[in-house]
Amino acid sequence: MMPPLTLLDTPAVKVPELETPDLLLRGPRVSDLPEFTALANDPAFYRFLGNKPQSEEDVWRRMLGQLGHWALLGYGAWAIEEKASGRYCGSVGFFDNQRDLTPSLKGTLEAGWTIAPRLHGRGYASQAIQAALAWIEPRFPQARLTCIIDPDNVASLNVARKFGFHEFARATYHNEPIVLLERPR
């Protein structure tokens, strides 16, 4: 019988590290899986992210997709670690998710962010987005920046507007209404 595979906690894909006053933005790690899975099963976390919990398998695939973006496209999502606690507390980054959506976002840098509900109201989303935008914009100066947000997620819509995103369309995605936003260059 073969011994179980030992997983490395440092991915082979190099993800740049970014720092804010309160956060470390870094590549996803295997050790993030339990905390990320717990978040993905918190109704306050997933309420605006499909409104259903995610299994550990779903979360694992999401983490692999985050690293896959870095490997294939040269950008992706950072895991967010709170400096004070050292705990995983969300993610921020850019994607090309090839969504079946009209109007299409294919070929755009689709921004996305999530923060643990226990940390809402501390400005962490703003810190993370500001750092991510400062990293992405000089590297992809001609790219269109977009995001999609549940129309009931007032806090996230306010954060998006704070960073210059404005609504350009409304659509249905996975049978749910969605607001499409873009950030002019």
UniProtKB/TrEMBL annotation:
Domain N-acetyltransferase, chain residue ranges per copy: 23-185
One Pfam family cited in the UniProt record for this chain: Acetyltransf_3
InterPro entries the record matches: Acyl_CoA_acyltransferase (IPR016181), GNAT_dom (IPR000182), N-acetyltransferase (IPR051531)
Origin: domain of life: Bacteria
Protein name as catalogued: GNAT family N-acetyltransferase
